[in-house]
Every structure is written in structure tokens, then in C-alpha cells.
Amino acid sequence: MRLNRFDPNNVRVGTTGSGRRFPGGGGGKVGCGTIVVAIIAAVVFGVDPAQMLGGIENGAQQQGAPATGQQSAEQLCSSNEYALETCNALSSLNDTWAPIFKRANVRFEQPTLRFPASGRFNTGCGAGSTGMGPFYCPADETMYIDVGFYQTMERQLGAGGDFARYYVVAHEYGHHIQKLTGVAASLRSAQQQNPRAANQIQVLMELQADCYAGVWASKNRNLIEAGDLQEGMKAASAIGDDTLQKNAGQRVNPESFTHGTSAQRMQALGLGLKSGDDTECDRIVELR
């Protein structure tokens, strides 16, 4: 996908070092996004999610991650190829979603992007670890993207290519959209009211984020290159709950699903790609 180079004035970027907190953070309460990523990491890597959520050290600094320190957006985003891709995607996502919110007369606020620079770090949602993979924290409206995860995607999940990586960023951005529109709060309330359906409701939230990723790509279809859509669909399939459980040698357990099956994730991404209409994605989370 031929994304334009990011505009340093159009991205909020920083690093996250060990023991450091950022504005919007505070309590030790862990947001649902962090919990979900920990569960996925447990399935893929066999890691105890309780250890992750407690902030247990998960290992050395990921190779290739941007270094800590007071650096400009230009420096951080240009530190390596994956960081540059991520910033390019963020800038494009901001440019795509801002006018959508304006037309809907809904307040729009850009999310912050942080590159974890150590194995363990703090977020507005509690303790984080680079081993948890990318996630969005609604408490500080920040996307935490460990660029080392992109190598894991390609080597362990077979989901390589730039569009597959853009899909990851666009999916996490989708959770930011849910925070701004109030969808995330509504779904969390529904989970509290109906704990038995908590996982099913979480699946709806994740599928809507997949759909939003497709909407972004659809609205930038002129930048899509041959093979991009196949990369996206392959990535969506690779991270379906049923596929992750099978590949981990586990029994497929629908009751434990948190993100949806491979087929559901591909369908949700495809819905956004085909329609280019965010209101189509809204129908995914209509609770009856």
C-alpha cells in the first residue's frame, strides 16, 4: 500500500520506558483491551496472562524497537522501517477519520502512538509488556505498538506484508473510534450486566474494529497495490481465535473466543472494505 510519508504535525508519538507513566494514566485497573491482548498472547506464546497483567518481566528489549529518550516524532518514526510504516498508517488514519467525525458532528481527538522501549512498562490501563503485542488503552487513548510483533506475525503466524501490518494499526485505531463514539463504554456496560455473555460481546467489539480497519482501507483504495487485500485477509485469518487455538495444539473452545473466528474476522474486514461505510460496522455491535 503506497501510503504517503507521515506528517510530524499530524501524529502524536512517544516511547514508553520502564516505570514511566503518561498523562491519562493512573490506577492499576486494567482495561479490556489489555486483557484481550494478554489472552491472545497466552494462546500464541503459551504465556500466563495473569503474569502479564501483573507486570512480570517478559524478557529483554525487542530488537529493532525505537530507543527511549526525548525524541521528536520525526526521529522516533524514522528509527526503523516498521516504525515508519506505523507512523505513516497513523497519519493516514487521522486524515481519514477526522472528516468522518466532522460530518457526523462528533468530537474527534487523535490517539497517541507509543513504541514500547522495554520489556515492561506502565500504561493508563495498568502494567504492560512487549510480549503482549499491540493494544489500545482507552484510559489514556493510546495505541501501544511493539514493532517486534510484526516479525512474530510473519514468522510464527505467516502473516507478512505491509498491508498486514497496516491492518494491525488500523484495528487498534478502531478501538479508539469505539472509545470516542461511546460504543466501548456501552459494550463494557453490557458485559457487566450480562457476565455470561462477556466473551460474546467482546467478540462483537473486535469484529467492529476489524470492520473499521476495512473502512479505512476502502477510503484509501487508490493507494492499494496488487496483493494487499490478500495480505489483509491472510492476517485476519491467522489471528482468528479458532486458528490460534488449533495452531497452539489446543481444543477449539468457542466459549473462550474473544476476537472471533478466522471466518468472522475476514468477513468483518471484508464488510468494511466493500462498503467503505462506518455505519455498516455499527450494525455488528447492535445487541438484541
Structure in words:
With 288 residues, the protein is α/β, with parallel strands linked by helices. The protein has one domain (8-285). Helices cover 51% and strands 8% of the residues. It has helices at residues 32-45, 49-53, 73-77, 81-103, 148-156, 162-181, 183-193, 198-219, 228-238, 241-247, 262-275, 278-282, and strands at residues 12-16, 112-116, 120-123, 126-129, 135-137, 142-144. It has a 4-stranded mixed beta sheet with strand order 1-2-6-5. Strands 3-4 form a two-stranded antiparallel sheet. Helix 6 (162-181) packs across helix 9. The longest helix has 23 residues, at 81-103. It is globular and about 45 Å long. The relative contact order is 0.15.
Secondary-structure class = alpha/beta
Q: What is the helix content?
A: 40-55%
Sketch the major β-sheet: 4 strands, mixed
General form:
globular
Number of domain units: 1
Quaternary structure of the protein: single chain
**SSE string, helices as H and strands as E:** EHHHHEEEEEHHHHHHHH
Q: Average pLDDT across residues?
A: 78
Strands, total number: 6
- Per DSSP, the total helix count is 12
Beta-strand percent range:
5-15%
Low-confidence residue ranges: 18-69
CA radius of gyration is 17 Å
Distance N to C terminus: 38 Å
Which sequence of strands runs across the widest sheet? 1-2-6-5
Summary of the model, kept short:
This protein is α/β, with parallel strands linked by helices and about 290 residues long. Helices cover about 50% and strands about 10% of the residues. A four-stranded mixed β-sheet has the order 1-2-6-5. Strands 3-4 form a two-stranded antiparallel ribbon.
